[in-house]
Automatic annotation (TrEMBL):
Residues 1-19 form the signal peptide. Keywords: Signal. Residues 160-561 are annotated as: Disordered. This is Fibrinogen binding protein. It comes from the Bacteria. InterPro entries: SDr-like. PANTHER family: GLYCINE, ALANINE AND ASPARAGINE-RICH PROTEIN-LIKE (PTHR34403:SF16), TOL-PAL SYSTEM PROTEIN TOLA (PTHR34403). The lineage of its organism: Bacteria, Pseudomonadati, Bacteroidota, Flavobacteriia, Flavobacteriales. It comes from Paenimyroides ummariense.
Length: 650
């Protein structure tokens, strides 16, 4: 089906039909030609080419399926409905008259076809937008997954490093303890060698050590209580600071969301006011131009005023439909943004709940470890006390056995001495009886010397036993003190290691929290910058579209004025060449020439056929009858023009 629908961008803006005598419609249709109706009358398709563009007021084309709905089988090859300007009186129309209601139905089907095409374009745009959104979400999910994987690998690497460091530290501690144990054994051997010489000094030192140990124990107990109070106070302070930080963060987040909502609302209100102001301005400008055109046309012809009024009504209807479509699109965009904001808020809430759960879990784990450490410490303390009690009991039992052995030994010694004394006395008595003459003085001297020797011997034995008991007691006391000192050193070393581990853990936790805070802050800053960039891009795109729309309107207005001027010129020429047989041929040649001139225009820099760019040489191979639409637009900045050609379906 050949269509001649000339775009607003070309010189051949509209078409006009000069109807001659008609032939049978059924015969015309048999040639696969469309049904042609001019001013409500059917005409032959061969007369279609005789119509001049300056005589046409409006033209509507129907596809075969729509034409069948309106005209029945007569429209199975499609239909072209043309209305000529009222001032044209070039020829009279003959043939079958079409009911006005059918013509109105034609306009309805044409409008429906236009709406369907608009809906299709909007559906394609929406599908494209949804696909881009889906790709963006998939990319974000992929980036998030990669970030989590990197974080997990980093945590595993850190755990391995911590384990290696702990093993190294344990080995160093073991070596250090072995060295200290060897040193202690050497010192013990040396101390045992010096023990006898230091017995007296040890007794005094013991009293001093007891006093120092008691004072030290009291000081340690006091320090422990103070440390526990301080730890409790630090924990309470930390919990308070965390609660304040959390409350502050939530308040800041709430304030930020409210500020964003307020800014968004203000931006929407501003955009709405600008759109209303622009629409009002455009309407006023349009009304002014229409009033000028109306005043000009009033001077020429009353019928032209009526046609312009109808065109104005169509334009208002079109503007209303476009406004409704725009409002619908804005509502969908608003709903999408609200859905995105809600999804973002839900994700942040979920992350916050997960962080709270994690913190709670860590606190419970920390409390459990502290309880276990406390239980372990109490068990060790209990074991130490039991060991000390057992050692004390063993020492007492040993002392009791030694005392019994000493008493037994003293009793045996006493019996021996008494027996010896008795034997000596008997010998002395015998000597006395045998030698009464021996001087009494020698006997008394001998008895005195024996008594002194016995007393001296008993004193030495007693001193020796006391010294041994004292040395043994000092050795036991020394061992006890050394054991306590070792236990104390071990406890201090354990406390130091635990404090270091705790400090390290707190430092790591602090670093982790700072890293998370920094990451979150960086992410928020990135999101803010992206949002600003997106807003800026949308604003620029809006300005560009508005500039293009304005340029297009200016071009359309220019073309309309040129078309009106050409119509006047054509009317003048029509007076000179009325009903000329050569008119149709001249019209076709002129149409072809204007089509080629529009392509050869130096300002035209780009030619698109069905959306594909071609050279001017290739475009010139087309006939004007191959063209369904041809639209010319000019760049506002550099003035370069573009022709977009859509071919007929056949």
């Amino acid at each position: 089906m050949k269509k001649i629908l000339i775009s607003i961008g070309c010189a051949f803006a509209t078409l006009t039909v000069n109807a001659a005598s008609t032939i049978s419609i059924s015969k015309e249709i048999s040639y696969k030609n469309p049904l042609v109706i001019v001013n409500g009358y059917k005409i032959r398709f061969v007369d279609y080419a005789k119509i001049k563009p300056e005589h046409i007021e409006s033209i509507i084309e129907l596809e075969p399926e729509d034409a069948v709905e309106v005209f029945g089988e007569n429209g199975r090859n499609g239909a072209i409905i043309i209305k000529l300007i009222d001032s044209f009186k070039g020829f009279s129309l003959e043939g079958a008259k079409i009911d006005e209601r059918i013509i109105e139905k034609v306009a309805y089907y044409a409008e429906q076809a236009k709406l369907k095409e608009q809906a299709r374009l909007e559906a394609e745009a929406k599908a494209k937008k949804d696909a881009e959104e889906k790709e963006r979400l998939a990319a974000e999910a992929k980036l998030k997954k990669e970030a989590l994987e990197a974080e997990r690998l980093l945590a595993e690497e850190q755990a391995k490093m911590n384990a290696a460091e702990k093993a190294k530290k344990d080995a160093e501690d073991k070596a250090r303890k072995e060295f200290e144990e060897n040193q202690r054994l050497e010192n013990d051997a040396k101390n045992r060698a010096d023990a006898e010489a230091k017995t007296k000094r040890d007794a005094e030192e013991k009293a001093r050590l007891d006093a120092d140990a008691k004072a030290k124990k009291d000081a340690e107990e006091k320090a422990r209580l103070e440390a526990e109070a301080k730890a409790k106070k630090d924990a309470d302070e930390k919990a308070r600071l965390e609660a304040e930080a959390k409350a502050k963060k939530e308040a800041e987040e709430k304030a930020r969301l409210e500020a964003e909502a307020k800014a968004k609302k203000e931006a929407e209100e501003k955009a709405r006011l600008e759109a209303e102001a622009k629409a009002k301005k455009d309407a006023e400008e349009k009304a002014r131009l229409e009033s000028e055109a109306k005043a000009k046309k009033d001077a020429e012809e009353k019928s032209r005023l009526e046609s312009e009024a109808k065109a104005k009504k169509d334009a208002e209807e079109k503007a209303r439909l476009e406004a409704e479509a725009k409002a619908k699109k804005d509502a969908e965009e608003k709903a999408r943004l609200e859905a995105e904001a809600k999804a973002k808020k839900d994700a942040e809430e979920k992350a916050r709940l997960e962080a709270d759960a994690k913190a709670k879990k860590e606190a419970e784990e920390k409390a459990r470890l502290e309880v276990e450490a406390k239980a372990k410490k109490e068990a060790e303390e209990k074991a130490r006390l039991e060991a000390e009690a057992k050692a004390k009991k063993d020492a007492q039992e040993k002392a009791r056995l030694e005392a019994e052995a000493k008493a037994k030994k003293e009793a045996e010694e006493k019996a021996r001495l008494e027996a010896e004394s008795k034997a000596k006395k008997e010998a002395e008595e015998k000597d006395r009886l045998e030698a009464e003459a021996k001087a009494k003085k020698d006997a008394e001297e001998k008895v005195r010397l024996e008594a002194e020797t016995k007393a001296k011997k008993e004193a030495e034995e007693r001193a020796r036993l006391e010294a041994e008991a004292k040395a043994k007691k000092l050795a036991e006391e020394k061992e006890r003190l050394e054991a306590e000192a070792k236990a104390k050193r071990d406890a201090e070393e354990k406390a130091r290691l635990e404090a270091e581990a705790k400090a390290k853990k707190e430092a790591e936790e602090k670093a982790r929290l700072e890293a998370e805070a920094k990451g979150k802050k960086d992410a928020e800053e990135k999101a803010r910058l992206e949002a600003e960039a997106k807003a800026k891009k949308l604003a620029e795109e809006k300005e560009r579209l508005e500039a293009e729309a304005k340029a297009k309107r200016d071009a359309e207005e220019k073309v309309r004025l040129e078309a009106e001027e050409k119509k006047k010129q054509a009317l003048k020429e029509l007076e000179d060449q009325k009903n000329s047989d050569q008119a149709s041929a001249d019209f076709i040649n002129k149409l072809e020439q204007e089509f080629k001139n529009s392509i050869n225009n130096p300002k035209i820099k780009k030619v698109l056929i069905e959306g594909k760019e071609v050279t001017k040489k290739e475009a010139l191979k087309l006939s004007v009858f191959d063209v369904e639409t041809s639209i010319t637009t000019y760049d506002k900045v550099n003035g370069d023009g573009t022709i977009e050609i859509k071919l007929t379906k056949k």
